[in-house]
Design a protein that fits this description.
The structure is a homodimer of 198-residue chains. With 198 residues, the first copy, chain A, is of the alpha/beta class. The first copy, chain A, folds into two domains: 49 residues, Helicase, Ruva Protein, domain 3 (Orthogonal Bundle), CATH 1.10.8; 92 residues, Dna Topoisomerase Vi A Subunit, Chain: A, domain 2. Helices cover 43% and strands 12% of the residues of chain A. The first copy, chain A, is built from eight helices and seven strands. In chain A, the strands form two sheets. In chain A, strands 4-3-5-6-7 form a five-stranded mixed sheet. In chain A, a hairpin with a 6-residue loop joins strand 1 and strand 2. The interface between A and B is large, with 54 and 54 residues. The structure holds zinc ion (2 copies).
C-alpha cells in the first residue's frame, strides 16, 4: 500500500528521480522533510517555487542563471581577460568557478558529439561558439577526457581555424576517462594553469 | 562565487540538508531539475506545495498521513486483528507496511529512551500507548535491536503489565545492532511471523 496518502507518495516518486536518490533514500528524505516542516520543507517548497519562476538559460553562453545574459556574460571585467572556456555542461562551468579560475568567460556546448546517439554539430551550440570566438584571445577547450569529448574538441579546433584565437586544452592532470565535475578543485585549477596549445 | 544566482544557490543549500545528499549531489540534483524543468522541477514544486498543506501527524498513532486519524487507524478491519505494532519511527511503520505484515495497527513512539540525550518516557508517546493497549489482543514491540531500543522495550513491557494484552517482540532474525528500515522485506516479514512472547 501507499505510505501516507497520495500527496506523500507522489513526493517520494518525484524525489526518487533525482540523481543520487533512489526510492529508499527518497522516502527517508520525505520523512526528514516532514519532521523538519518549518525549518526545511516549507523553505524548500518556497525556494523551488522561486527557482521555477526565476531560472533561465543564458542566451549567450548557455549558463543557467536568473538573468540573461547571465551574471558572468554581463560582467565586463570577464571580457577583458580575453579567455573563453568551452565546457560540455553547466555542471563543468560551476566546477571551474568553484576552482576559482579567474576572470574568464564560458561557452556551454550542451553535450558532446556522439554519432551513435544521433548527436551532431547542430545539436550543440557550436555555431554560436564560432561567432563568439573572434572576441577572445584564447579559447580553452575544457571538455571531458572521454572519447566523445576529445572528438568534439578536434571538431571544434578545425572549425576555429582562422578565428584568430589561440585554441588550447586543459593540461593533462585531468585523469583519462574522468569527468571534470568529479575532480577536486586543486586539480582543476592546476590543469588550467598548465594548459597546452592544440 | 555563487553558482547561478541566489535562488539557485539557496535551492542547493536546502537540498544539501536532505539525508543522503551533500553539497555536490545537491548541485547535480538542482542542475537535473533545471534541465527537466517541465517534467520534474515544476511537478516537484507543486507536489511539495500540496504536501506542505496536506501532511499531518495522526493524533492516534503518530503516523504521517494527509488525514487524522490516519488511513490505518481509520480502517476498521485493521482493528479486528487485534495486533498493535509499536515502532520507534514512521520510517519503521512504512517498512513494515511494505513488508506486507497484514491487517495490523501501529503505534509510533517517536524515538527511544536515551537518558544520555535527555530523552525520558514523557518525551515519547508511551502514555498514549498504555491507553490504547486494552483495545488490543497483542502488542508487538518492533523497536530496533539497539541498546536504547531494548531498554525502551523493557520499560514498556513493565508499564503494560495488567493491560491484558500479550506483549511480544520481533523474532531474532533482525541483526543485532541493525535498524529496521534498512532490512529487506522478507527478513522483516519472517521476523514478525516468528515473534516471541516477552
Ligand atoms: Zn552567459
Ligand atoms: Zn494513525
Amino acid at each position: 500500500m501507499a505510505s501516507g496518502g497520495p500527496e506523500i507518495e507522489q513526493l517520494i516518486q518525484l524525489l526518487a528521480r533525482l540523481p543520487g536518490l533512489g526510492p529508499r533514500s527518497a522516502r527517508r528524505a520525505v520523512l526528514h522533510l516532514i519532521k523538519k516542516k518549518d525549518q526545511l520543507m516549507i523553505p524548500l517548497s518556497a525556494a523551488l517555487d522561486r527557482a521555477v519562476l526565476a531560472v533561465r538559460s543564458c542566451e549567450v553562453c548557455g549558463n543557467v542563471d536568473t538573468q540573461s545574459p547571465c551574471s558572468i556574460c554581463a560582467d565586463p571585467r570577464r571580457g577583458d581577460a580575453g579567455m573563453l572556456i568551452v565546457v560540455e555542461d553547466v555542471a563543468d562551468l560551476w566546477a571551474l568557478e568553484r576552482a576559482g579560475v579567474g576572470a574568464v568567460r564560458y561557452h556551454v556546448l550542451g553535450g558532446v558529439l556522439s554519432p551513435l546517439d544521433g548527436v551532431g554539430p547542430d545539436d550543440l551550440s557550436i555555431d554560436m561558439l564560432i561567432r563568439r570566438a573572434p572576441d577572445y584571445r584564447e579559447i580553452v577547450l575544457a571538455v571531458n577526457a572521454t572519447v566523445e569529448g576529445q572528438t568534439t574538441a578536434h571538431y571544434i579546433t578545425d572549425r576555429l581555424v582562422g578565428s584568430g584565437a589561440k585554441v588550447t586544452r586543459l593540461a593533462h592532470g585531468v585523469p583519462v576517462g574522468g569527468e571534470l565535475d568529479y575532480l577536486d578543485e586543486g586539480t582543476l585549477s592546476q590543469a588550467l594553469k598548465a594548459r597546452t596549445e592544440i
